[in-house]
Design goal:
alpha+beta; 5-stranded antiparallel sheet; 4-stranded antiparallel sheet; 8 helices
Length: 238
Amino acid sequence: MYRIDAYHRPTSVADAVDLLAAPNRLALAGGTTVRHDGGASPTEVVDLQALGLDRIAVDDDVLRIDAMVTLEAIVENHSVPELIRTAARAELPSTLRTVATVGGTIGAACADSLLLTALLVHDASVSFADGRAVPLQAVLSNGLAAGELVLAVDVHGSGKTALARTGRTPSDDPIVAAVARSTDRGVRLALCGVGPTPQLVGPGDIDHLDPPSDFRGSSEYRRHLAEVLSARVLQELS
């Protein structure tokens, strides 16, 4: 929650970087998580919508999704791997998918994000305005530092994929979900709902997970779901 005291709308990445370098400024992507609460801490927002970061481009097996691409645009683009499209559709209701962005989803790093889980198994790498390209897993583990500006996420589209999830209802956020992708380099497995952010795991690591408990399920229940769902997606790919 923030008290919004000023609004900036840069038209270039360089201007956005300069604005975000100042303290108490937040990047505004889709705007679904920045809210005014009347609190005492003043905050300025830097609206990124005029930067032109709204394209999806394919180069051989690599797909680049700009940070301001909306989740609905991902759903509707058939160049995007089907697993990622399915996960984007499940991430939010349709009214919010039209404004929520992939960059904002990375920044929010929600523990039960099915989209982030799908991006992980597709070897996602996050490109920043300072020229760095960082594996998505490292970005989720470390969080975004103040002033960092995400430009795009690159994913590899090849391979066979599988998804299994358990929720209170079919349309609810998953309590736990398992996603796997098989290529000629092996199998990547990712889980959400078992830690503070979605994460890549090895099949032998599941016994060592320590998921949080909440009203939707105990730590033991979540670990059990992780074992069952992981076995299901790995079996589907075998």
